[in-house]
Specification:
globular, binds zinc ion
Length: about 650
């Protein structure tokens, strides 16, 4: 998933950005009065059978050492009227001698029936939720005997299923059909499919999905490119994936090819613009393959979702889900696609075993994303992105506190919602650690190591401990002198940003800083040298303007550069935040329109927060009342908390 900067939702740190991810932990804490002590089995380590790697997953009830899923045959009907999915999940399982039950993760599902081997009704039990950890949902325990090969669960989802976002036609761009999309990461797949919902369990799947006529359905699988006459769609995913990568979208969706193996899905009126914006996808794919080996998933397509998608992107295999706010008109925000594409190696191919090892997914991906951007757009461009990562990381560390355990790469999420682990630490501290490793041996040796890492561990899970063993054996030991004195534990198990963090200088940002100086010294806005600036330079410019800037100066900048009403969401957002802080009322009408039409959380948080912090709470509440129905529930959760909104 893409989150180029992140802060904890509870603190709303002084960041201009927020996490591009959910904060399900803000869903009301329900105190259960039962004495049930059921907990995920933390004491018996799970074993990945392909690698014999041991790990505990504190966020899944499944005991995969006893019985584990291997393949899913999913048959589902999507009902937009009731906002539910009725489905049967036929799981092919593998069990060890002595297994008496198989355990699935579920949350808010109505389980109707369970059948074994397609003929025998099973005895099953839906356990109580764990006190204080309702985000885990409920364990579904199904009794089995040694002859059981398949377990079929008949069930219905809840209209409030956390992974499912149902949009009315008015919430889409073309406003003709309703729209549905899913977001399963981190542990939300269990709200629409009963599954062993940990990143350490992989399975293949087939699916048959029925949606209303006139709609296209897509999944993390081989996908159709045209609407079917009867609303029936068949899917096949032959590469095993963990459940957090299960996805579905359905709506009035068109397809347009971009390259040989790449294409874009979007609402029909928008698909051409999206394909144009993402026209470098094929080049990105080829650059990525040149760096770290063959792309293993067949096609690579992107779906550009309606505006209420609360995140930047999600690396669902074969079909990245992306926010429409990347469509800037000048390709300046396509790093997000590079990020999701990079996940096809780091994350989707070599997968963090538990959410405590999240940096193995995201740190590698941010690193790899930047290498793709460098290959396609040049070093100066990639350097800007690195500097932005670093600045955001510093902000996050300051927010958490330099000694906070939440700034360790290896996280401690037991008993907590794994979404709390989504921060710049996993992403940017992770990437800078890898850059440090690279800097010691040089790019050639480092790239060879990474290539080997991806190919030897493809379709497997990785724990932090296993990675350290692998790293020592394959990189550090063979290059002992070059790594002399390097303490990797300081990075992985220690807090803050270690002193040996590589320093990056961006020549393009230095030029921007020079123009800001000129402006501060009285050069009129129109005379500043801003030609060929990308979004990143503009953001640098806006962020570095002095705190004391006057509304007259803002007005002069606005006249020269038309920030108010800008079509580029990144630039508009940065400008509106400054406008709120400086009480520059000229921008307020457009700011309100922006808040009512964009649902990406990283854009919403800084604006509402700025209103609260500058005593403009009334305006915040007035706008939020209007805009809230159009936001995704994870964005609602964050803003509810920020604004003290009482859910009625
Ligand atoms: Zn990511």
């Amino acid at each position: 998933m893409h989150a180029f900067s992140v802060t904890r939702f509870t603190k709303f740190a002084g960041s201009n950005r927020d996490m591009d991810f959910k904060s399900a932990a803000t869903i009301g804490l329900i105190v259960f009065l039962c004495s049930c002590k059921q907990q995920p089995e933390n004491n018996t380590p799970l074993t990945d059978q392909s690698t014999n790697m041991n790990f505990n997953d504190p966020h899944s009830f499944a005991r995969i050492n006893e019985a584990v899923v291997k393949h899913l045959n999913w048959k589902a009907t999507v009902d937009f009227n009731t906002k539910t999915i009725s489905a049967e999940a036929e799981w092919t399982i593998e069990q060890q001698p002595g297994a008496e039950k198989i355990i699935f993760d579920t949350r808010d599902l109505t389980i109707e029936q369970v059948i074994l081997n397609n003929e025998v009704p099973a005895i099953f039990q839906l356990k109580d939720t764990v006190a204080g950890q309702s985000f885990l949902g409920q364990a579904l325990e199904i009794s089995i005997v040694p002859s059981v090969k398949t377990v079929t669960i008949f069930y219905k989802t809840s209209p409030s299923a956390a992974a499912l976002q149902w949009l009315n036609p008015e919430q889409t761009k073309d406003k003709k059909y309703p729209f549905l999309f899913t977001q399963s990461q981190a542990i939300l797949c269990r709200t629409w499919i009963p599954t062993q919902d940990g990143p350490g369990v992989r399975f293949t799947f087939d699916a048959t999905v029925k949606v209303p006529q006139g709609m296209l359905a897509l999944m993390s699988a081989e996908n159709p490119q045209q609407i079917s006459a009867d609303g029936m769609y068949h899917f096949k995913m032959e590469q095993p994936i963990p459940s957090y990568l299960m996805s579905m979208a359905a709506g009035d969706i068109a397809f347009k090819a971009v390259g040989k193996e790449t294409g874009v899905y979007a609402e029909p009126s928008y698909v051409d613009a999206c394909a144009e914006e993402l026209s470098d996808m094929q080049a990105m794919l080829e650059s990525a393959e040149k760096l770290y080996g063959k792309y293993q998933w067949g096609r690579y397509d992107v779906i550009v979702l309606p505006p209420s998608f609360p995140f930047g992107g999600m690396e669902n295999p074969r079909i990245t889900f992306a926010t429409p706010t990347i469509i800037a008109g000048d390709k300046s925000l396509v790093a997000l696609v590079a990020h999701e594409l990079a996940h096809s190696w780091s994350g989707n191919l070599v997968t963090n075993a538990t959410w405590n090892d999240f940096w193995l997914n995201e740190g590698f991906t941010v690193y790899f994303e930047n290498r793709i951007m460098e290959a396609v757009y040049g070093k100066d461009y990639a350097d800007m992105l690195k500097v932005l990562e670093y600045e955001s990381l510093v902000e996050t560390v300051n927010d958490f506190g330099k000694d906070s355990a939440d700034t360790h790469l290896r996280l401690h999420l037991e008993g907590r919602d794994p979404d709390e682990g989504v921060s710049d630490i996993a992403y940017n501290k992770g990437a800078y650690f890898l850059r440090l490793l690279e800097s010691k041996v040089g790019r050639e040796t480092w790239d060879k190591f990474l290539n080997q890492y991806f190919s030897e561990n493809a379709f497997r899970v990785m724990t932090t401990d296993a990675f350290i063993v692998y790293l020592n054996k394959n990189l550090i030991e063979p290059n002992k002198e070059k790594y002399a004195g390097l303490d990797i534990n300081e990075w992985i198990f220690g807090p803050g940003i270690p002193a040996n963090c590589p320093k990056i200088i961006s020549v393009r940002f230095e030029q921007v800083d020079g123009e800001i100086n000129k402006f501060n010294q009285g050069t009129p806005a129109a005379q500043l040298q801003t030609s060929n600036w990308s979004t990143h330079e503009w953001l640098r410019f806006i962020y570095q303007l002095p705190e004391t800037i006057s509304t007259d100066q803002m007005s002069a900048l606005d006249n020269a550069f038309h920030f108010t009403g800008a079509g580029n969401a990144e630039i508009a957002d940065a400008w509106y935040e400054l406008a709120i802080k400086r009480n520059y009322k000229t921008a307020y009408t457009d700011m309100e329109t922006f808040l009512c039409s964009v649902g990406r959380r990283k854009f919403l948080t800084p604006l509402y927060k700025a209103m609260v912090n500058t005593g403009q709470q009334d305006m915040a509440m007035r706008i939020y009342t209007k805009a809230r129905p159009g936001y995704h529930y994870v964005a609602q959760n964050t803003m509810d908390e920020l604004l003290g909104w009482q859910v009625k």
